[in-house]
Structures are given as C-alpha cells and as structure tokens.
C-alpha cells in the first residue's frame, strides 16, 4: 500500500534572513523514507502562495510535491527572501532551491537539475505610463527588482551605469507596494511572476511595458538547484522529473500555470 508522506511547511527565521513570523502547516503524518528541505522565495505569485487555511499552494509547491511523491521522500518547505536561498543551501539549511534561473552566474555555486520550464523577463509599469524597457526611456527612472535575482543582476549591469535608478527589495509584496504608491516607476520580474500578478486583484492598475527582454544575464528557463556535492540527489531529481513529465497530473499542472 502506498504510504502517505509527512509534509511540513515552515515559515520563520533561520541563520540567514527570513520572515519574522513562524507558521507551520502539517498534513496527516505517516512514515516516509527521507527528509528533504526545499527552499523557495517568499510569496511569489504562481510559484508560491498560501491558501486561506495556511496550506501552501502554487506551481513550485505542486511540482515539488509530485517529484517527492515520485521519489518517495519526505519533505518540508522553508521560505526565505530570494537572496538568502543560495547561502542557505551552502550552509546546509536547505537541500534544494525551488526554483532558480539557469544562468552561468550560478554555475560555480551550485548544480542545476534538468529544465523545469521556460521563463522570460518583462517590465511592469503603472497603467498609462509611457515607460519602455530601454535605457533611453528609463534614464532617471526608478526600477524595482527582487534582491538576488537575475533581473537585479541585469538592471545593475546593463542599466544602472546609464542613469537608471535600481532599487532592490527582499520580498515581492514590497516591490508591488512600492510601484503602487509611486516609490518606483517600474519593476523588472520574470514572466511567470508578472503574468500571475496581472491576473489578480493586486495587479490592478499595472500593465506590461514593451516586449520580453533578451539577454544572457537573464536566462530563459528555470531549474532546481542543489549543492555541488549532492550529485546523487541531483540524479534522483532528474529521474523523477523525467517520469512525472509523462503523467496526466503533470500535463494538468502545466496547463494551469505555464500558459
């Protein structure tokens, strides 16, 4: 008989920066084979959300639940600011980053799994703004980004030296608050996040500016990130990913989020 696995959701402070509050969601408990600590960014639309009763939901949650079920591994979720994820991985506070953009920037720090899904980058502005994602249009403007992301790296490398003011935030909700109250003029984020944002009430009054950006710094897909010493885990994740991609559940998940 298939065993039900314990899944624990942990919101709290670790040795690296994390939210102040601590909440735990524990589904029915049963025996499992191993523990896997999954690190993900705090409250990123489509990737990570909380249902009204505190249970986690979203693309990253459901995809990793499928993978861990396939591997018959017990797991817990640890939420942090995006910038804290790699330090947490290197300090053995988490075992997998879910997800992380595939770029050369991270290659010396961790190992990537096979690609989870494609992702791009777009600029979001207030409705009726004439700002476009070009240096000329953004010179003197304030652009908000999530700290530690490829979007921050791109904005600092490609735009800051030409007069664009780059402001970095630890969590997504602070970026959205900043653009709505006029503290920043635009925000640069991945397309999965921006699509989810603009599809929800909190995205009211915001709109895309221009097309997707194309640059090697930004990357074009995401994967899972593990320590370089955890090659056995990496192989197990890739094997599980290959298996679930053939299932109806995975196809349904893709249709729901990856539009």
Automatic annotation (TrEMBL):
InterPro entries for this protein: Solute-binding_3/MltF_N (IPR001638)
Coiled coil segments of this chain = none
Name assigned to this protein: Solute-binding protein family 3/N-terminal domain-containing protein
What keyword terms does UniProt attach to this protein? Answer: Signal
Q: Where is the Solute-binding protein family 3/N-terminal domain?
A: 35-259
Any matching Pfam family: SBP_bac_3
Protein source organism: Burkholderia cepacia
Top-level taxon in the UniProt lineage: Bacteria
């Amino acid at each position: 008989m298939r065993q039900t696995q314990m899944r624990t959701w942990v919101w709290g402070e670790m040795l690296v920066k994390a939210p102040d509050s601590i909440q735990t969601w524990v589904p029915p408990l049963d025996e499992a084979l191993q523990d896997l600590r999954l690190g993900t960014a705090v409250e990123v639309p489509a990737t990570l959300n909380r249902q009204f009763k505190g249970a986690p939901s979203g693309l990253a949650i459901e995809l990793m639940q499928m993978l861990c079920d396939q591997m018959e591994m017990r797991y817990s979720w640890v939420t942090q600011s995006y910038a804290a994820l790699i330090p947490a991985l290197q300090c053995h506070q988490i075992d997998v980053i879910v997800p992380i953009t595939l770029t050369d920037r991270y290659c010396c720090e961790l190992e990537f799994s096979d690609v989870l899904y494609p992702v791009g980058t777009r600029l979001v502005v207030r409705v009726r703004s004439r700002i476009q994602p070009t240096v000329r249009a953004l010179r003197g403007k304030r652009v908000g980004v999530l700290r530690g992301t490829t979007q921050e790296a791109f904005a600092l490398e490609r735009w800051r030296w030409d007069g664009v003011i780059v402001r970095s935030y630890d969590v997504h909700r602070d970026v959205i608050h900043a653009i709505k109250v006029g503290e920043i003029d635009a925000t640069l984020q991945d397309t999965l996040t921006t699509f989810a944002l603009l599809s929800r009430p909190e995205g009211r009054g915001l709109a895309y500016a221009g097309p997707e950006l194309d640059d090697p710094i930004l990357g074009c897909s995401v994967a899972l990130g593990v320590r370089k010493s955890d090659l056995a885990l990496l192989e197990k994740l890739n094997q599980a990913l290959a298996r679930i991609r053939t299932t109806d559940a995975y196809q349904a998940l893709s249709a729901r989020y990856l539009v």
